[in-house]
Amino acid sequence: MKDLPESAERAEKLKGLGSSRKRVEDARFTQGKGNYVDDITLPGMLFGDFVRSPHAHARVTAIHTEEAMKVPGVLAVITAKDLEPLGLHWMPTLAGDKQMVLADGKVLFQGQEVAFVVATDRYAAADGIEAVEVEYEDLPVVVDPFKALEPDAPVLREDLEGKTEGAHGPRKHHNHIFTWEQGDREATEQVIAEADVVAEEMIYYHRTHPCPLEPCGCVASMDKVNGKLTIWGTFQAPHAIRTVVSLISGIEEHNIRIVSPDIGGGFGNKVGAYPGYICSAVASIVTGKPVKWVEDRMDNLMTTAFARDYWMKGRIAATKEGKITGLWCHVTADHGGFDACADPTKFPAGFFNICTGSYDIPTAYLSVDGVYTNKAPGGVAYRCSFRVTEAAYFIERMIEILAIELGMDAAELRRINFIKAEQFPYQSALGWEYDSGDYHTAWDKALEAVDYAGLRREQAERVEAFKRGETRKLLGIGLTHFTEIVGAGPVKNCDILGLGMFDSCEIRIHPTGSAIARLGTISQGQGHATTFAQILASEIGLPADSITVEEGDTDTAPYGLGTYGSRSTPVAGAATAMAGRKIRAKAQMIAAYLLEVHDDDLEWDVDRFAVKGDPERFKTMKEIAFAAYNQAIPGIEPGLEAVSYYDPPNMTYPFGAYVCVMEIDVDTGQTEIRQFYALDDCGTRINPMIIEGQVHGGLTEALAIAMGQEIAYDEMGNVKTGTLMDFFVPTAWETPHYTTDHTVTPSPHHPIGAKGVGESPNVGGVPAFSNAVHDAFRAFGLRQSHMPHDHWRVWKIANGLGLHG
Amino acid sequence: MGKQHYQITVNGEPQDVLAEPRELLIHTLREQLRITGPHIGCETSHCGACTVDIDGRSVKSCTVFTAQVAGKEITTVEGLGSPDAMHPLQEAFREHHGLQCGYCTPGMITRAYRLLQENPSPTEEEVRFGMAGNLCRCTGYQNIVKAILAAAAEMNASKEAAE
Ligand code: FES
Ligand code: FES
C-alpha cells in the first residue's frame, strides 16, 4: 500500500502547483540589483533623443540642423530624409497600418517624433534638441472621432488618400480605418423592435495610458565585425520584435538578437514597436557605436501606446420579467493618427465581441468603426486582453441601466441572466465558445460575503436620512460580474503580422537533477521565474528551487509571441506542462530499463516512477536524470531534454464577482472606498500569493482609471495630462484595502486547468468602481455619467441632479 | 558648461565626481558611479523611484543637483544591507510579496528605511501616508504596507532583545 502522507510530504517539498512559494526574483530586486534597460551601459555608448512636435497637426516645411551639429557632444541629427533611402522613414504597425518613424512632411499628433539627435550623453542630446529648428505650418486639428468622420473634415492621412481598401476591409471616409461586424444585425434589430423593454445609452470609455513605472527604451548595438545587431529593450514580445526588425531592415534574422532584460512593468505599453527602436538601431549602424534611447515620462504619456478611447452606443432588450433577449452595440473607436493597436490580425477591435459578458443573450450584433484623429497612436490592451476591458465595462453598465429601466435590483437581474453551469461549453451569439464557468456559485458567494441585503437596507436608510437633511453622504454599491477571454490564441484564428500566437517552452534536465527551462514569454513583474518552475516541479518531480527559468533572449529562448493579454499562463504555461510531460515520458522508459520492468508496469508518484504494487522499487527523477547521461540504454538517446510548442485549442475564460462599497460626499464630490471584495476564478491556482498580488495591482489600476486617470486633449490637440502631476496614479494613501476570494473552475482544455489572472481585476474593477458611483445616485435619477469619476465630475453629477439645493 | 569636482560620500565610500553644475544627482549615481538601484520613473519628483537618503532625510534624487549635495552622506538601497545580511525591510518585502516588477522597490525600501527611523512603530495609516511619495504601478500597495509593518515589528523585537 502506498504511504499517502509520505508522498504528500514529498510533494510539498517540490513547491509545485498551489504553493505560495516566495519569489526567486526578489533577492535581486530588493537589493537594487535588477538589470533594467537603463542600467545597461556599454563602452562608447551614445545617447539619442527626439525633437518632438509641439503641434497636433501641421505641415513640416523645413528642419534646420546646422546649429545643433555645432553643439558640443552632438554627433548626428537624423531626419526622415536620412531614413528614406533605407526605407525606414515609415514602419509597419502591428495592426496592418504604417506609422512615420520621423515626421515625413507633416505631423499628426502632439509629441510626434520629428528628428533624432545622437550625442555623447543625455545632456548634450538635450542641448542638441534645443538647437534644432523646425518650421511648421498649422493645419486644422481634429480630436473628436465623430467630427473626423464628417464629410468636410480635414484629411489626416494624406498617404492614404484615395485608398478605399484598408487592412481590414473597405474604408468609408478619408479618416475611416475599418468597420468590423459580428453577430446577426437583422435578427437583433427585430428583437429590439419587438421587446417589452429596451434600454439605450452611449457609454464612453475614455482614453488612458498604461504608464508602467519604467518608461520604454532600448540600447542598440551593431557589431560591424561580425555583422550582428543586438537590441536590449523594454519588449513584451522580443521574438516578434526580432522578426519585425528583420523584415523592415533586411538584416537576416539570425544576425539580430533581441534581449528583454528586467522590465519595470508593461501593462500593454511595451508590446508595439516605437520610432525610438528604429532610430537607435540606425544610429548604431551609422556611428558603429551602441546607442541608448530611453524616453522620459512626458514622452511616455504623450506618445507611446495609449489605451481605450471607445464610444460605445448600446441597446439592450428584455422581457418585463428581466430576461435579456438581445444586445446591439456600435463602437466609434478613436485610434489616433496611426492604427497601432496590438490586436490579433483578424480582430481589429480585439475581442470586444466578448461584450455579451456573463449573460445568456440569444441574439446580438456588434459593429466597430475605427477612426483617425490628431492624437497619439496606440489602442493597446492596458492590463487587459485586447479590448475585453471595454467590453466588460460596456455590458456591466448596460445591465445597470437596464435594471433602472426595469425597476429591478441589479444583482437579481444579473442572476436571472447568467449562463448556467450546465450550459458550458457555451456558444455565444457573437462567436465565442466559453470553455467553463460557474457564475451563480461565485455570485452567491460574493453577495453573501458582503451581506448584500444588509448593504441595500443601509443604502435605503441613507437615502432617507439624506432627504431629511441628516447627512450629506450617499452610499454606492458597485456590482460587477465579468467574464474575460484570455490566452490568445489558437493559431487557426490568432496571429500578429502572420505569426501564429502559440507559445513555447524548452527544458534541459542537468545530470545531477536540476534543470533550466526557457520560454517564449517575458515577465514584467508577473513572477514567471517563480511560477513556471512550480508548474514544472509538479510535472517532473524536481523541486522548483532546482529549476531556473529564463526568458527574453531570442538567441537562447524558443520562439514565442510574448507576454500580454494574460496569455503567458494559458499558452506558455501549457507549453511548460507539455514539455514536462515529454520529459516524464522519456524518464519512464529510462526507469523501466533501470528497474528491469516494462514501461506499463510503472506508475508516477510525485517525484519518482515506482513499480505498480511494489512501491519500494522505484527510481527518483534525480536518479533517472543521472542515468540519462551516464548509461548506454538500448534504443534510447542519451540526455534528457524536451521542447514543446503549444497551440491552444481554445481561449480560457476566467471570471469573477466584485463588490465595491463607496461613500460619496455630495458637496465635495470626494469618494471613499469603504470596502472592496474581489472573488476571482482563474481555474487551477498555481501560486496563491502571486495571484493575490496580481489582483491587488489590477484593482489599483482599475481604481486609477475609473476615478481619475485620463489622457485628455484640448481642441487644439494639446495633451493636458502629460505628467504625473496631472495624470492620476494612486498612491498608498488613496488606495483602499482589498479583500480577495476565489472559486476554482478549471479550464477543461488546459493541461493543468489554469486560466490566467493578471488582467481580470482591471477588467472587473473598472465597472465595479464606476457602478458604485452611479449606484449612489440611482435614487436621484442618474443613468449614465462618463468616467473618470474624479471629484470635480462627481460634484457635477450631484449638482446636475439638484442635490446642492 | 564647465565641469567641477564634487566630493560626496555614497554608502559610506567617499567619491570624487566630475560633473556639470546642472547634473542631477540621479544621473551621477547611475551613470558615473554605476549605482543603479535608484531608478528613474519621471524626473519630475512625482514617482519616488529615485529616492535616496541624504544626511538622514529621504530625497528624490532627480530633484537635486549633484552640486547641491557636495560634502553630504548619501545612502541608496545598495547601502542598506548585503547579500549575506539583508536589511529586515528587504527580507520583509520578499516575505510579504511587496514587489512585482521591482522597479519601484529600491526607492520604496529606501523611503521605508527612513520612515521607520522617524517613526519606529507606525500604524497602517501612518505607513500609507508616509509612503505616499512613492508610486507603485504593480502591487496596489497592500503588501508593501504589510511588509513595512512586519519589518517594523521585526526591528523593534530585535532592538528589545539586544537591550
Ligand atoms: S524619478 Fe525622481 S521622483 Fe520620479
Ligand atoms: S513593483 Fe512594479 S512599480 Fe512597484
Distance between the termini of chain A: 79 Å
Structural class by secondary-structure content of chain B: alpha+beta
Q: Mean pLDDT score of chain A, rounded? A: 95
CATH architecture of the largest domain in chain A: 2-Layer Sandwich
Poorly predicted tracts of residues of chain B: none
Question: What fraction, in percent, of the residue positions of chain B are helical?
Answer: 25-40%
The CATH superfamily of the largest domain in chain B is: Beta-grasp domain
Individual helix count of chain A:
20
Shape of chain B: globular
Number of E-type strands of chain B = 5
- Indicate the radius of gyration of chain A in whole angstroms: 28 Å
Domain tally of chain B: 2
What is the overall number of helices of chain B?
A: 5
Largest interface: A-B, 58 and 59 residues
Give the secondary structure arrangement, pairings included.
The complex is a heterodimer of chains A (805) and B (163).
Chain A: H1 4-14, H2 26-30, E1 46-52, E2 58-64, H3 66-70, E3 74-78, H4 80-83, E4 90-92, E5 98-100, E6 106-107, E7 113-119, H5 122-131, E8 133-138, H6 145-148, E9 165-166, E10 169-170, E11 176-183, H7 185-194, E12 197-208, E13 217-223, E14 228-233, H8 238-249, E15 256-259, H9 275-287, E16 291-294, H10 297-303, E17 306-318, E18 324-336, E19 363-372, E20 378-380, H11 388-406, H12 410-417, E21 426-427, E22 433-434, H13 439-449, H14 452-467, E23 473-483, E24 495-496, E25 499-500, E26 503-509, E27 515-519, H15 528-540, E28 547-551, H16 568-595, E29 602-605, E30 608-611, E31 614-620, H17 621-630, E32 641-646, E33 655-665, E34 671-681, H18 688-707, E35 739-742, H19 760-776, H20 791-800
Parallel strand pairs in A: 1-16, 14-15, 17-20, 18-19, 27-28, 34-35
Antiparallel strand pairs in A: 1-7, 2-6, 2-8, 3-7, 4-5, 9-10, 11-19, 12-17, 13-14, 13-16, 17-18, 21-22, 23-33, 24-25, 26-27, 26-32, 29-30, 30-31, 33-34
Chain B: E1 4-10, E2 13-19, H1 25-32, E3 51-54, E4 57-60, E5 73-75, H2 88-95, H3 105-118, H4 124-130, H5 142-162
Helix pairs in contact in B: 2-5
The structure holds FE2/S2 (inorganic) cluster (FES) (2 copies).
One FE2/S2 (inorganic) cluster (FES) sits between chains B (99-105, 136-139) and A (213, 265, 525).
